[in-house]
Amino acid sequence: MIRKLLLLLSAVLILCSSLISCKGEDTPTADYVTIRTSLSLTNLQAYGTLLSEFSKSNTDIIIRDKSTTPSDAYKLGLSLPQTYGQENSPDIIFTDTASLGDSVMENFAAIDEIRATYPDFAGSIHPFAIACLSGGRVPAAVPVGGKFLSLFASRKLVAEADMPKMWEEVTALSQKLSGDGVNLFSGDEQSVILLFEQLCVQTTGKSVAHNKPSEEWLSALRMIDELAKASAFSNSAEDRFAQFNSGKIAMVFSDNQSLSGITDKDSTVCVFLPSIGGSGEKIMRCTYESGLLITKKAMEDGKKSGAVIALADYLLSDTNLPKLCEEEEYSALSAKEDASALEKSIDLAMREATKVVPSEFTGKTDFGSWSDVGEHLSELIGGLSTPEQALELIMNPEKTLSDLLVVSNTDLALPEGTTDNTTD
């Protein structure tokens, strides 16, 4: 009898053990939580892998995902719902937040509201990036990708004390460096375009990508002309990063995706060109568009909110965020303890920036193409045209420099003492 009881007890224990081991997606416990997610970025494969790995480590959380690529969403008409307060609507979404109107954004919890309960939420994300993505609205989206464009200087060639604080000091620094056989910038077309864009931003206070040329641009062109006369531009055919790494130029423009081109990251720092007119303004050109948002509905659910934050923190970690955004324009959003001098200087520049201007520059604009602009800038630094002529050519894409240089016979003044002997 005792033996039968022992065998029965063993069978019950084995069955209980099997039931416990099967909890999760197949047989969840009564305490399981369901999170609904949606992603409309490009890297669905990495996203799916991360969700799978999270699920394996959190068997009491069930994830129901409804994601699609942006192109498929467009084709199928699967635009994001206009409300996120419904019972089966997503709790977490990744999307291009710029496309969401104010009425839609009201459905998402503000970052500060979340941090009131979860102080460490998105703690590794740079405040600068969060402010950029908010676009003046109450910050609710956590940036998951972005692009910045800035100027970098070699501390081996330009000491911190020698960094120009006024525009006049830029040309003086250029002349000083040229005496040692070093140029300030590369003279290749792309580098000059990037410098011109930066000067336009600083003189007009706005992006130049989709604005038609105006007389405001003349100031930037005159600055380019001044720099050319001060031997600021190299005439090397080498790549600008190769010139920078070999010490032939002291400064180089780069976006975050091209920083790998800089080899000596411990002697390179992110710098600002002097403000125009001595205003002291420090302008960073930066664009953040994609973000993670959490609905108010999810945060108001006491049982669900902790699980939602756990998943969000997992996806936003320093390890996983680059994987999620490897096909996006991912930027290191925070400087780590073991960061190089270059990374630390970027972090500092982001914190010191007093103004952010979008950096989405495109091949085509309202006034032609940037390659046409680059051609006219090359003519300017080569001494073939004046700033006024360069502006006229930019404003009138159908014209060429030869058009401006052709002078009709009727406009030619005859030397004194001569007569016009032409006949019909």
CATH superfamily (homologous) name of the largest domain: Periplasmic binding protein-like II
- In whole angstroms, the N-to-C terminal distance is 137 Å
Please state the CA-atom Rg, rounded to the nearest Å.
30 Å
Mean pLDDT equals: 77
Low-confidence stretches: 1-29, 70-82, 407-415, 418-424
**CATH architect. name of the largest domain:** 3-Layer(aba) Sandwich
Strands of the widest sheet, in order across it, are 2-1-3-9-4
Number of domains: 2
Largest sheet descriptor:
5 strands, mixed
List SSEs in N-to-C order: HEHEHEHHHEEHHHHEEEEHHHHEEEHHH
Morphology: elongated
CATH C-level name of the largest domain: Alpha Beta
Helix content: 25-40%
Describe this structure in words.
The protein has 424 residues and is of the alpha/beta class. The chain folds into 2 domains: 27-145 and 289-324, 3-Layer(aba) Sandwich (D-Maltodextrin-Binding Protein, domain 2); 150-286 and 361-401, D-Maltodextrin-Binding Protein, domain 2 (3-Layer(aba) Sandwich). It is built from 17 helices and 12 strands. The chain has helices at 2-21, 44-57, 70-76, 102-105, 111-117, 127-134, 167-178, 189-204, 217-229, 240-245, 296-299, 305-315, 321-324, 341-352, 370-381, 387-395, 401-405, and strands at residues 33-39, 61-65, 92-96, 142-143, 146-154, 251-255, 268-271, 283-288, 290-294, 355-357, 364-365, 368-369. The strands form 3 sheets. It has a 5-stranded mixed beta sheet. Strands 5, 6, 7, 8 and 10 form a 5-stranded mixed beta sheet that branches. It has a two-stranded antiparallel ribbon with strand order 11-12. The longest helix has 20 residues, at 2-21. It is elongated and about 80 Å long. The model is unreliable at 1-29, 70-82, 407-415 and 418-424 (pLDDT under 50).
